[in-house]
Amino acid sequence: MIRYIFMLLQKRLWITLLFTVSISAVALGQTDRLTTVEMEVLPGLQFSVVRFTVKPGERVKLVLNNTDDMSHNLIITLPGTREKVVEMANKLGESGPAAGYVPKTSDVLWTIPVTAPEKANELVFKAPEKEGVYPYVCTYPGHGTIMFGAMYVSKSGKMPELTKDLNIPESRRGDKVDGDAEHPGHAHEKPAPLHPYTPVPPYHYRVFIDGASPAAIAVALPNEVSYCWDAGTSYLRFAWGGGFLDNSDLWKGKGNAAANVVGSVFFRSKTGFPIRIGEEKPSEIVYKGYQLKKRYLEFHYQVDGTDVYELIHEATDGTGLERIFRIPEVTDPVTFYTSSDEGVTYAASAGVWKGGALQLTADQARSFTITMKKIGK
Amino acid sequence: MERFFLAVLLGLLMAACSTRPEPGEAYIVENIEMPEGLTSQVGALEFLPNGKLIAGFTRGEVMTYDTTTKEWHLFAEGLHDPLGIHVVSNDEILVMQLPELTRLKDTDGDGTADLYEKVTDAFGVTGNYHEFNYGPEIDSKGDFYIALNSSSSGGTMRDEVRGTINLEGRDGETGNRQMFSTVPYRGWVMKLTKDGVLHPVAAGFRSPNGIVVDNEDNVFVTDNQGDWVGTSPLFHVEPGKFYGHPGSLVWTKGWNRGNPFRLPLDTLDSMRTRPAICFPHGILANSPSQPVFDRTGGKFGPFEGQLFIGEMNRERIVRVMLEKVNGKFQGACIPFLDSLGLRKGNNRLVFAPDGSLWVGQNAHGWLGDVGIQRIVFTGKQPVDVYTMKLTTDGFQLTFTQPMQDTAALNPENYLFSRYYYLYHHNYGSPQQDLEKIPVTAVKLSDDKKTVTLQLASLTPGYVYELNLGNIPSKWGQPLRNSLVCYTLNELLNN
């Protein structure tokens, strides 16, 4: 079974992009056209529109809407001079900021000045009469070698095949959009390894994931069972079968995303924190950490100062979890609460069930196991 | 021919007077081979007592590297973006990750951590991608400092957060336009005392991706240019002070002034403490990272006691020369090393036991490279500015070597300009009031190492940028760096 789905997203993004590149030509009469190019900035220092085509002499409106969190400019240069212009911009050194990082050279045709994040600037110009490939580039320090694109000025409007277009960054010639070199370019290629080792369950990640606090711990177990234990609340939040996580969103770019569950959730806690020691509702639950026991996680937390240890295994048959509890110093009876709408049946190694609550004597509570099984097949 | 003889004669004379340093590059950059399959975005970099390197990576791995056998070994996994390590022993470290500061310990001696123990999680997390945490850095008392990013306006709060929510910590009027602090202590520097309690120290940080403590327990923190940060700074962080980014103020004890973004700009400006060092944006550094003190005792060259700071956006390590004026830190920054094979994304720095400087690189969706490199001092003495100090009417530059006197005495070889950066909610600031300041007198010390420059004027609140002309050393070797920027907050009182 696939425990990771990785490359689909890239493919999807690229396709989306192909259809959202906003270039519109408006006929303003017989000969006078205005082509508008809406340029945004993608993560990883990339112009959203990596190439476009205009007719010689046509009027062009280029809008730079800086959707990035860094400042950028945009300079259109004469054909073949992009690298030279970038180098000259780098050499501006301490005079760069005052010059807007634009070098003084006739190779620079038009400029959109430094544009702060969430700001926009536009430029209207008349395309050159001479056909050719006119590069555009951000000359902000460090950006010039990767952040560029190509304006094709031609009567035919033809551009080379994307994969063979040497006028755009290499990372943009495939179906990738974020320039993330370690991601595979095609879905049929062998996925790039996620780690310098092959993760074998049990293993875990601390991740941002829906359905838990930001201090979640996701664990992959054998039998294709996975669970999310929440260090922010100190209890088991949900469990699923059929896969683990797809972290490709999370690990791409800045990580402005969450881990995605692969498979289907069969358990979701409705009870909240399930343990009560003695009669009173616990007033303070403190997460302490976890220890790996033969690579299985044993969580440690305190309920009003009493240490509780919870080791979670996969159930030996069917889809489910085995939760092995230890409360070594407990002197009061313990109640473990469940709810009938959590998607699982409960069984316990000790104690008495009363209306969905497991009642344990202090002696029983020192060590007991709760088994949760997915309801139905 | 005649000139040749003269040169030989001069050379012999010089050799007779003092030793001519060996020409050649003072520093070389070496690449470290990374393990196959690792996405080498380096978040943490330290050395263990046994001499092995230990590194944390974005996808949660902590690995050790034997510098002799060049073998990598997995120590721990599954962490949430580890961005700082403190080494306790060969088998125990503290790791700063997004949700907590965690102790990792190998309790059974198999070379792999099996205990992942919470040290502190007494701060909020909204699940915003920008909630990076930095440190821990230890002081002489054994207390730890950590720094918590503000949350990004480019991201959101997740439905379920950790910590008490206070929406006054974000700019409501313009929505998500500015970094925010809606759960406790985002945008603060914190101190963890030995009793396990995490104390707020100082507010006002945006993205403090670098923290260091000096031998006198002074805490220094870098921040990143952006909203409220005109250009990237280095702050000397003192308890109770405010360093400029407003959102975090809501977590000040007893705060009753409502949404800090609503306070008048003048008020915020009067509350804030200025940077000890401004790194002029686009000139010195755009995204400074971890500062480290050179405590190598000369193994890394002549800059013992000075700070080295990584720069993310270009192939550069920056050097900082601090001094105390009227009891306050200020000083100069200078490129230490440009290019020479160094990559971008210089995020984490650590000195190895042999005195080489190891650099861990990271892009994390911004500009940068990945991997680890090592900067080695070749033993060939660099010709460089050793210190830049304020005088009553100008600056005093001391070079690492005696300089050629005609060049060193020529005022045209010292071009000063000065400017400042605005404090405002906008993203960064252009240089303000940019003006050239003439040098009115130059003196050279008897040992030809120190020049004293008198300036036509000195105004506090400005960065003084100095561009050095062609001033070779006494032996004709060129200066490595010709640009140095002094942040003038305080004038010397006469």
Explain this structure to me?
The complex is a heterodimer of chains A (377) and B (494). Chain A is mainly beta and 377 residues long. Chain A is 7% helix and 41% strand. Chain A has helices at 8-20, 82-90, 362-365; strands at residues 23-27, 33-42, 46-47, 51-54, 59-65, 72-77, 108-115, 120-126, 132-137, 148-153, 203-207, 216-221, 225-230, 235-241, 245-246, 260-261, 264-268, 275-277, 285-293, 296-303, 306-314, 320-326, 334-337, 344-348, 352-354, 357-360, 367-374. In chain A, the strands form 6 sheets. Chain A has a 6-stranded antiparallel beta sheet. Chain A starts with 7 loop residues before the first helix and ends with a strand. Helices cover 5% and strands 38% of the residues of chain B. An 8-stranded antiparallel beta sheet of chain B has the order 18-19-20-21-32-31-27-28, with no helix packed on it. The model of chain B is unreliable at 11-17 (pLDDT under 50). The interface between A and B is large, with 59 and 70 residues. Chain B: InterPro entries: 6-blade_b-propeller_TolB-like, Cu-Rt/internalin_Ig-like, DUF7133, Quinoprot_gluc/sorb_DH_b-prop. Chain B: Pfam families: DUF7133. Chain B: This is Glucose/arabinose dehydrogenase, beta-propeller fold. Chain B: Keywords: Signal.
* Name of the CATH homologous superfamily of the largest domain in chain B: TolB, C-terminal domain
Classify the secondary structure makeup of chain A into a structural class. mainly beta
Helicity level of chain B:
under 10%
Low-confidence stretches of chain A: 1-22, 26-30, 176-189
How many strands of chain B?
A: 32
Q: What's the helix count of chain A?
A: 3
- Counting DSSP H or I runs of 4 or more residues, the number of helices of chain B is 3
Number of strands of chain A: 27
Beta content of chain B comes to 35-45%
Radius of gyration of chain B: 24 Å
Overall pLDDT score of chain A: 87
Shape descriptor of chain B reads: globular
Choose one word for the global shape of chain A: elongated
Count of structural domains of chain A: 2
Q: Which fold name is given in CATH as the topology of the largest domain in chain B?
A: Neuraminidase
Do you know the CATH architecture of the largest domain in chain B? 6 Propeller
Question: What is the makeup of the main sheet of chain B?
Answer: 8 strands, antiparallel
